[in-house]
């Protein structure tokens, strides 16, 4: 754990984003190699990551309360840390939905979504790594744009996935289950875009 004097909020943002990326990778691998017998174990693994992310976020906010002069405005640190945490929570919600709705097999189009969420979290991680040097970074803007592009791709996957679902499935329970899972997947992309928007707003305020 970082000592009080050398605590770096920008590095702490990156640490939080690592939890999101790890969650996305677990989700993608779990659904790609789906085994109902291993689902409970994967849910525990995911929850441990989410819990660790919460602890890291609370540590940051506890330090912020005592901080004399933070590097950016307090409300921006609070908002960005919460939005990064929201990404991790949204990813966990997808796996929880798979469990709650007793899903027995994974629709192929779902895997395109989970791969794209991994890509989105990777771009978010790079953007946050660049964020500390936002006045000089040549890469930050392109990563924010990439997150926005991936969110639009997520919207398209959501629309095509749900449309195909209603074209090929008549069972009302199956329709309900997969509509909700598609919604949760799209929420992951929206959460990543919220982080990108926060970064962009903070850069504008401090430029």
From TrEMBL:
Superkingdom to which the source organism belongs: Bacteria
A Pfam family recorded for this sequence: PhoU_div
InterPro entries assigned to the protein according to its UniProt record, in alphabetical order: PhoU-like_sf, Put_Phosphate_transp_reg, UPF0111_domain
Similarity remark: Belongs to the UPF0111 family.
Protein's UniProt name: DUF47 family protein
Organism in which the protein naturally occurs: Anaerocolumna sedimenticola
